[in-house]
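Submission checklist for the structure archive. All mandatory fields must be present; incomplete records are returned to the submitter.

[x] Identifier: GGDEF domain-containing protein
[x] Organism: Actinoplanes cyaneus
[x] Residue count: 527
[x] Sequence attached
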Amino acid sequence: MREITQHAVRLMERAQTGDPAGALAEAETVLRAATGDLVDGPACMHFVRVVAHIAQSDPRGAIAAVEPMLAAAAREGSGGWQACALASRAWQRLRLGELDATEHDLDGVLHDLVAAELLAAGEADPVAAVNSRVAVAIGYYELRLYELVEPQFRSAYEMSAADCEQNGNRAMWLINLAELHLRWALELYQIDRVAEAESHTAEAERYAVRAAAEVSGADAAVWRDNALLYAACARADRHDPAGAAVDIERYRGRLRERGFASEALALSPPFHGVALKRSGHPEAALAVLADAAAELPPDADWLVAASTHRTRAVLLVHLGSADAVATLAYGDSLAAALWRQRLNTLHAARTMHDLAALRRQHEQVARAADLDPLTGIANRRAFDRAVEAAAGRLGPVAVLLVDTDKFKVINDTRGHAAGDEALRAIAGALAAQVGPCDLVARLGGDEFAALLPDVDAAGAATIAARMVQAVRDIPDCIATVSVGIALGLSTDLKCLLDRADEAMYRIKRRGGDGFHDAGHPPHARAA
């Protein structure tokens, strides 16, 4: 699986660096390889499809690609890839809502992100874990919920640093953290919370300096310039504004020369203006902001545009413009309204997260109450509840009662620890023979039972035979099992349990290590 995951990682990088159509076509070829059906194949390859549609600015295509990915991730039992799917769908819904107001669904977006965050937390596979945290971070970033973004990017960095085979340059996560704090600071400046803003530029500098020291790979020089530009921006409002102004100009020039389309290029003009003003060059600062305002594209990021125009208005007021005072006041009132909206969304997300976490805890407690602590399979309580539920619906059902042979010999000769280990192995062997709709439970001691809805006599006999053989095949275990089978309607379960018990004892009296259908001759191991 590691090989296919690394293949998917390479295709994701290909999709994000200029060839999304080629990455999409190759991923779909891999997905169809097993059965010819696109919905089959590993979840990581479905994620390539999602990423490729995102890279092509196709939110509807990305959202459509999420459904088969969720199904694949569920088959694999991968919370991480499920989280990638849900978080990607969330922020693509946001993009779609920007294009079409009828598609706006903030509650749906938050539900997906909260579910994704909880799923990501339990993922063990490093590639799925990192990608899921980054996907969640992007979703919260789109909503400006900086407090929820930071722990996701920090986790991604720590996992990438711990796994040398991780995709991407681990310093990218540090650069993302620096950018996060700079944007956070810009919003705080807009509502005149200067001290808080400066605490975030200090954090931005710390992350940016670390990133510059840790970059590696073929593009290390570009990423280092990106990191150092952010570090210079972070110094503009605190210490050394003159040096910051020089460094911002230097690193902006280098990135432009390299043709590197960095968020830093768009984000840096307000900081450049502040650095020039604080170092005694307000006219130069005004010229920088005038050029930046003129270069803003029609679809410019709202915070970049707002910060550019606000910083320019602050400079005009500083230079004596009366007209700029009213413009500044109006802009600040809008910024305050946007900040309140952000806080409302943050409160909703945190409330939703707490409720979802509490619900998950309750579900885990309920599941734990239905599990046998020694073997990890269902316990007697869960089996009795399943029998009660099955009795309430009309349909065919098979009951298997299983008793372990020679278990007392293991306890008497090798001790109870060996007996416990044997029970765990037997439970695992039995549970591995049934389908997802069937139930295997430990009733107590060395007795087990299975409830198989919609299984005929031949199917029940096949499963019983597999159970007998699977226990025989357990290494270094002398135990075998005797299996009694009874079939009938679910409404007659009490009678079926009694008949399965009689059938089990019948094979037990013949020496065990076999199975017996209550309506047929016994099947025991040949002497």
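[x] Structure attached
Curator remark: The chain has a mean pLDDT of 90. The beta strands are 396-405, 439-444, 447-453, 480-489, 514-517, 523-524.
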